[in-house]
Specification:
- Residues 19-230 form the Metallo-beta-lactamase domain.
- InterPro entries: Metallo-B-lactamas, NDM-1-like, RibonucZ/Hydroxyglut_hydro.
- This is MBL fold metallo-hydrolase.
- It holds the Pfam family Lactamase_B.
- The protein is of the alpha/beta class.
- The protein folds into 2 domains: 6-95 and 130-243, Ribonuclease Z/Hydroxyacylglutathione hydrolase-like (Metallo-beta-lactamase, Chain A); 251-316, Arc Repressor Mutant, subunit A (Orthogonal Bundle), CATH 1.10.10.
- The chain has 9 helices and 12 strands.
- A 6-stranded mixed sheet has the order 1-2-3-4-5-6, with helices on one face. A 4-stranded mixed sheet has the order 7-8-9-10, with no helix packed on it.
- Helix 2 links the parallel strand 4 and strand 5.
- The longest helix has 25 residues, at 237-261.
- The protein binds zinc ion (ZN).
- The site of zinc ion has 8 residues, from helix 2.
């Protein structure tokens, strides 16, 4: 089989993460994987990069989204003549219906209270929604799920890789090439982010557990190269994944050691884990902290031992060695 032709189009974003990589696949169809953000600069640079490739936005037949975050999925309407492909679980953030945003706000308000955030931090909910300005609204035309073939491109299929976001997918080519979105990034460890459940009475997903499963799944593929959403292509994915999983486990065990000294809330653990940045980056750091707590509960190292007001108190299980 011929190796696929992949062109990387790098687009600036207004976010702390910096540039985002989108990928152009030319086969029987012209497919763009991720779009960059909905900003004037994003549109301008995207148009210029497509021009360099001899294309206009109208020439794109298919847009595939690795996940719904605004740095990756902003320009869905901009490519209105293309079919939009994404995982079903990404769609709620792509359309942002009133009923979903209602569930969204209700969920995070409760979640922050359960994490023990003092009331004056509840403004975080509004801050969290700010990046959504860089995202158009559009429903998905075709849902992609595990092992689906990518239409118009022989050899490519979908690998579900949830964790960083619920609807996260990667594209895998038979020759070992992976377009990985934010599944594996060389220079930063990708954050498993807390998202609302998929129904009012459903439990919330456990993104750290899902993310570790996704990393193991990627390692098992023995990828030759992973083209990420940010930073350099990853040529030693298995090694990097091993290192990421070890570091995550170590961080979780450090969290357990904090709880052995004193049982407490997620917010108090967050302050100890990220003393310098928790105030500025509360959304990310509380998500990361709760991810570690989820992992420790899942591994039976700690338990939710009770409530203090609405806040959950976590306690290390006794009799389990560190
Ligand atoms: Zn990203």
């Amino acid at each position: 089989m011929k190796d696929p032709v992949i062109q990387q189009l790098t687009i600036p974003t207004p976010f702390a993460v910096g540039d985002v990589h989108t990928y152009l696949l030319i086969g029987d169809a012209v497919t763009l994987v991720d779009t960059g953000p909905d900003t004037a600069e994003g549109k301008e640079v995207m148009t210029a990069k497509l021009k360099e490739a001899g294309l206009t936005p109208q020439d794109i037949d298919q847009v595939v989204l690795t996940h719904h975050h605004p740095d990756h999925a902003g320009l869905t309407e901009f490519f209105s003549s293309a079919k939009l492909f994404a995982h079903r679980d990404s769609e709620r953030f792509l359309t942002r219906t009133d009923s979903f945003m209602h569930l969204h706000d209700f969920f995070y308000t409760e979640f922050f209270k359960q994490a023990g955030l003092p009331d004056h931090y509840l403004i975080l909910l509004e801050k969290m929604k700010e990046p959504l300005y860089a995202m158009e609204r559009r429903p998905v035309d075709v849902y992609l799920s595990e092992e689906d073939a990518l239409p118009g491109h022989v050899g490519w299929s979908v690998m579900e890789s949830h964790g960083h976001s619920q609807g996260h997918i990667s594209l895998v080519h038979e020759n070992g090439t992976v377009i990985g979105g934010d599944l594996l990034i060389q220079h930063i460890s990708s954050n498993p982010l807390i998202e609302p459940p998929f129904g009012i009475n459903q439990p919330r997903p456990l993104p750290q557990i899902q993310y570790n499963e996704s990393l193991n799944k990627l390692a098992a593929l023995k990828p030759v190269i992973v083209y990420p959403g940010h930073g350099k292509p990853v040529s030693h994915a298995e090694e990097l994944i091993k290192d990421r999983l070890v570091k995550q486990h170590e961080r979780a065990m450090y969290v357990k050691s904090l709880l052995q000294r004193q049982e407490t809330t997620a917010f108090e653990v967050c302050k100890q884990l990220f003393p310098k940045i928790y105030k500025k980056q509360l959304g990310l750091t509380i998500s990361e902290t709760v991810g570690q707590l989820d992992y420790l509960i899942f591994s039976k190292e700690i338990k939710a031992a009770g409530l203090e007001g609405q806040a959950v108190i976590y306690r290390a299980e006794s009799g389990v060695k560190l």
